[in-house]
Amino acid sequence: MPRLRFETARDLFEAFPAAQEELLIEPTDEPSLDFLRALAADGAMEKAVGFCAYLLPRREAVWWACQCVKLLLPPHAGEEQQAFQAAEDWVREPEEERRLEALAIGRQGNYRVAATWLALAAGWAGGSMPPGTLAGFEAPNLAALGEEWLPIPPDQTAKAVRASILIAAWRLEPKDRVELLQTCVEEGARLAEEPREAT
Prior knowledge:
10 helices, mainly alpha
């Protein structure tokens, strides 16, 4: 079995210091999967979703978010479906062209929609991006290859994954939201334990 990405919660927060402030969680030396499941058992679903988004490698995190959004609130409009499909396409074939396509679709999307954040999560899963990509949602000028591209902060995919799942969950009744997020977190824990090829 592949080694878990972060053995303890503290390991994760040392790798992503901003996550502690974002999630408002105190780091401990508890094994990361136990820590994740304890958050969920305590009903701290938003924190559990965020912790899991950081715990998973980027490609697995985007795949996990796609499955969660599909469970919580399947995309229905054409624009939403396009963004959702761009994220899934990148997971299946994580090539640079697909990543940039997902990034462009995400930047043009409605940021109140979960699928937009899925596309952005995939788009931010690479090493660099066109200038202005984080600042706004206008279409990128991918032809301007002479411009220096910017490095992508390593936590951008996790932040977008978290946003996509929580936006989708927010539209549900509270009881349904907790139950379905519990299912999502357990699936995320399973993926962290036994990473697999996304299909």
